[in-house]
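So, can you check this record?

>
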Amino acid sequence: MLDDGCSHIFGTMEIPNAEVAQQTSELVTRISLLVLLPFLVAFSFIVFIIYRRNREGTLRRKQLELELQAIRAQINPHFIFNCLNSIHYCIQQQQSERAGDYLLKFSFLTRRILENSSKRLIALEEDLDILKAYLELEKLRSGDRFSYEIKLDEDLDVSNTAVPMLLLQPLVENAVWHGFESRGYQGRIMIEIESQDHEIVMRVTDNGKVSERFEKMKQHGKERSMGRTLISQQLDALAELEGREAKFDSKIILDETGNHCGMISEITLPFIPQF
């Protein structure tokens, strides 16, 4: 009987102990949840911010790439119009053989432009080939009224350096069409490209008649040529895409007596490997 009584007493004492343990466990769980909840909220917020920033960065990059394509779309028709105008000039002068030669070279050049038109950047080597083709076409149109020279840094790998297509072409075009128009005037264009501290410096120097150039721009109500404006816009978009500085500067060259005797333009790009 004693054993039964003890068993009864101890059995009744186990019930409160079990309830206390269960309540303690529930309390610990609740406290753990309350402690972890702020961390979970903070972690979720951080993940959301990172996702949003990445998404905004991706959208901004796509927007800038579309802006670059739009800028190239403005350059290319302007460039093509001038080439067609040159062919028309040859036909007007009854230079059928010259016009035919011009048309063949122009078709070659157009194909190269179209092949690269969808690319944000192309190899510097390819871009120089396009620029040389353009210069040869303009020499043909003008009757060799000007000469040109291209100097490249020996340490520069032109096949492994990426640049925006036709970036220098508006500068060359401006000299040919507005600086060398005077009869009997022999123009000269020097194009220099070099590598400096992970940057590409592209320099165009000409001996065109600067005063006539700006007078024609003022007559058309322009303070700055379309080509130079497009270059600046293209560099701004490129700098934001790459996260590095891209600069464009243009200066008038003065002779010993202070007269205008040409222009020098310089473009600085971040070095971007092609591959």
Notes: The chain is about 60% helix and 15% strand. The chain has a mean pLDDT of 78. Residues 2-92 form the longest helix (91 residues).
